[in-house]
Design goal:
The complex is a heterodimer. Chain A contains eleven helices and eight strands. By secondary structure, chain A is an alpha/beta fold. Chain A has one domain: TIM Barrel, CATH 3.20.20. In chain A, strands 1-2-3-4-5-6-7-8 form an eight-stranded parallel sheet. In chain A, strand 5, helix 6 and strand 6 form a beta-alpha-beta unit. In chain A, helix 4 packs parallel to helix 5, helix 8 crosses helix 9 and helix 9 runs antiparallel to helix 10. The radius of gyration of chain A is 19 Å and the shape is globular. Chain A starts with about 30 loop residues before the first strand and ends in a 33-residue tail after the last helix. Chain B is built from 14 helices and two strands. A two-stranded antiparallel sheet of chain B has the order 1-2. In chain B, a hairpin with a 2-residue loop joins strand 1 and strand 2. The radius of gyration of chain B is 22 Å and the shape is elongated. In chain B, about 35% of the residues are buried. The chains are: A alpha/beta, B mainly alpha. At the A-B interface, helix 2 and helix 3 of A face helix 3, strand 2, helix 6 and helix 8 of B. Chain A: Keywords: Hydrolase.
Chain lengths: ~325, ~250
């Protein structure tokens, strides 16, 4: 969560009511999903396997706050490098195409001296292959420092012809969302190049009316629930709406997108609408970067020629050996 | 065939024009072009060269166009590219090492690629690359070969493999095989070609074990070891095999 999708202490929920288990996977068999916001750096290999099994074929990992503030430029550099390096490779081992957005998150924008240095670093990464936007940027506490670096990064996005992925704040969300959009327009950005994230019932109408993309984060306790999401799609239709998990180091669900799709199937949303909000719209929005080649993940088990290797299949996508999670024996 | 010839043979006209203009551009623009290559040169295999793709080749050609008259500036430029590289850029940088100026400068970097867990990065230094055979210390070389074996990658694609075989490596291979065997796992048969020149009692025991293996590939490996030993000592293979090793065929 950038800066924090997790709950504040006073938001700890009541114990959930026990529910009858549903085989939701049966409802989404054969479907493909694109999760345009998930922080895999904070997730395990079990998550990657479960995501691949549930039909997630590609994802976007926005640069975010790692849970505690960084104290030097080098740790920012290494983090950005890991998003286009190690994490990209790790994902490929599970057959999932990994993209990222690069940016200085709002919380750390408040360390102004360091933020200035980070701004000089960003162009080195913004033009990398597979970087599909500037993100996630925007407001957390809505301070003047946050606004300064939000504006600077909008300029970078314009310069690099990249979409912008906007994080909207937890507190004063409605006001923060309006302010984020107004500033983006003030800098001359085309709303069609701006994805406003973490929407809810209160913000969605204004975002869509402004011509922006409206992303919804299905995140337990603090953001959207997927039952509410079904009703949003029923009311507004699928156009320019996309669903993500924003799964990170907080209590979150890397299967939020496929689970929401299953619930939509069960509650009678049309297959085409489901495809748009859980796959196609995210691709359309971020492919404006010129950095998404659908052929890389659209056909099952695509083999990246550059990673293929005569007489050796170890490096092919999706060939990470499976372990039997139910087995007592570890071999 | 030279690298430029290899590129020109397969590149489209627009790819060639783009690369030529960037090779003559001011230095910062060349470095930016290194990053931007995939936007202008498509990722497709270089003919007859399974390790390389056209975008990687274009990147290497941009690096070889950098002037080497100022060592400090040259080094800084290359180091910056390494520090901010994504996965394919890293692979291109390591592929370029034999073609860069001041080759000794990149020794630490090259061993970092051996430490990498990113498959394409490791492969770029390990396979079809002349840099390790030429510049690696024995310890670094042995680590490269052993890591290859450990990860079930084909050591036969390491340039200079036989030339740099050494007694320590032969010993390490034996130790590694013992660990694998203890765990009920196997060792690729091709690794045993690195031991004949350094034969001793301990290795001989390994060869006997291979010769008795239920796996045909192990038995074949044992036969080859014996053949190589025989040619060294000018003894008929059958004599060595039957008399010294008591191999059941």
């Amino acid at each position: 969560m950038n800066p924090s999708h997790a709950q504040d202490e006073h938001e700890v929920p009541a114990q959930p009511v026990a529910e009858t288990p549903v085989d939701y996977m049966a409802h989404i068999k054969g479907m493909s999903f694109f999760d345009p916001h998930i922080h895999m750096t904070s997730r395990t290999t079990d998550d990657y396997q479960a995501m691949a099994d549930a039909g997630i074929v590609a994802l976007i990992e926005p640069a975010f706050w790692l849970g505690q503030p960084r104290t030097g430029l080098a740790t920012f550099k290494d983090y950005y490098a890991s998003l286009v390096g190690w994490e990209r490779f790790r994902s490929s081992q599970f057959g999932i195409k990994h993209y990222c957005t690069i940016g200085l998150n709002s919380r750390e924008a408040n360390n102004e001296a360091l933020a200035e240095e980070v701004m000089e670093l960003l162009p080195l990464f913004a033009y990398k292959e597979g970087v599909v936007g500037i993100g996630e940027i925007g407001f957390d506490d809505q301070t003047t420092a946050e606004e300064k670096f939000y504006r600077a990064q909008l300029e970078l996005a314009k310069e690099a012809h990249l979409p912008v992925q906007i994080h909207t704040p937890h507190r004063n969300k409605k006001e923060g969302t309006e302010r984020s959009m107004a500033i983006a327009l003030e800098h001359g950005l085309d709303p069609g190049m701006v994805i406003v994230d973490h929407n809810n019932e209160e913000t969605v109408k204004s975002v869509l009316d402004g011509g922006f993309w409206a992303a919804f984060t299905i995140y337990p306790f603090t953001k959207m629930g997927n039952e509410r999401m079904v009703e949003v799609v029923r009311q507004y239709g699928p156009e320019r709406i996309m669903v993500n998990s924003a799964a990170d180091w907080g209590i979150s669900d890397p299967l939020a997108v496929p689970k929401t799709a299953a619930l939509m199937v069960m509650r009678g949303i049309s297959p085409e609408a489901i495809r748009l909000v859980t796959y196609q719209n995210a691709i359309d929005a971020f492919a404006q970067s010129g950095q998404i080649n659908v052929a890389d993940f659209a056909t099952p088990m695509v083999i990246d020629q550059s990673e293929k290797f005569n007489g050796n299949t170890i490096l092919r996508g999706g060939q990470q050996p499976r372990r039997d999670q139910q087995s007592l024996f570890i071999k | 065939m030279t690298l430029p010839d290899l590129f020109n043979e397969t590149a489209t006209d627009s790819e060639k024009a783009w690369l030529t203009s960037k090779q003559q551009a001011p230095i910062p623009a060349r470095l930016a072009a290194f990053v931007a290559v995939p936007r202008f040169v498509s990722r497709r295999p270089v003919p007859h060269n399974p390790d390389w793709t056209m975008d990687r080749l274009a990147r290497v050609l941009l690096l070889t166009s950098l002037p080497a008259d100022d060592e400090t500036a040259y080094t800084k430029a290359i180091e910056t590219l390494f520090d901010t590289a994504e996965m394919q850029e890293l692979a291109a940088l390591y592929s370029a090492l034999p073609h860069l100026a001041f080759p000794q400068k990149w020794l630490f970097r090259a061993t970092e690629a051996v430490r990498s867990n990113m498959g394409p990065v490791f492969d770029a230094i390990a396979f079809g690359n002349t840099y390790p055979a030429q510049y690696f210390t024995e310890a670094a070389w042995n680590q490269l070969v052993l890591k290859c074996i450990f990860n079930d990658k084909p050591i036969t694609r390491i340039h200079g493999l036989m030339d740099r075989a050494n007694a320590t490596l032969a010993h390490d291979i034996s130790e590694f095989a013992h660990e694998r065997w203890a765990a009920g796992r196997t060792v690729p048969a091709e690794v045993w070609q690195l031991v004949p020149r350094f034969m001793n009692e301990s290795l001989l025991a390994d060869v006997k074990r291979l010769a008795a293996s239920p796996d045909e590939r192990d038995r074949e490996a044992a036969r080859r070891v014996i053949e190589q030993m025989s040619s060294r000592f000018n003894v008929a293979p059958s004599d060595t095999g039957e008399a010294t090793l008591n191999i059941r065929r």
